[in-house]
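Section 3.1: Structural characterization of target chains.
Under the original work plan, the team committed to producing a structural model for every single-chain target entering the pipeline before any wet-lab resources were allocated. The record below documents one such target. The sequence was received from the expression subgroup and is listed exactly as submitted; it comprises 176 residues.
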Amino acid sequence: MLDRFDLLTPVSLECKWYVRGSGFTGITSRLSALTSLDDPSLPDKVLGTQPTSLPESKIRSVQFLGPGTWFDAEGKARREPQLVDLSVTTGSYGPTATLSVHHDIWGLFDFRGRPHHDVQTKNAPRLADALRELNTELGVTPEIGEPTYFGVATAFGIATPDADEDGFGPNLTDKL
């Protein structure tokens, strides 16, 4: 679904394995995503990467890896590795999906605190639309993640921090 919005074009999947009662195995398997994520044979391919030395192991998490496209102020498309990350984790309460973003294009200010409204308006609506569609498709209500140094998540994007008296946002480059 994220590939429809060109936010994540999966090129591989990473699976982390665990054994009940023992925890994580330390083994991560990687599968090249040569087919569509809705390919009905994909689950069997993923399960085929199970460590043969640990037949009792189960998948604990799957991370979808690949590039995404963002647009600069002039509207030029730019490819970025891991523009967004999508991971699915299993647990005793059921699976959870986590979407993480790794760029300043979603907010009103860049990481230096400079306003970049043209960049935000070319990118943030795509993220919002993708999140809405994911929630609808999965039949869930989003749970907002914890705030980070770089931003505060909202249901469908990133919150805008307060501007200073000159119209600039916080300079976050000290943590890059």
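The helical segments are 42-47, 117-138.
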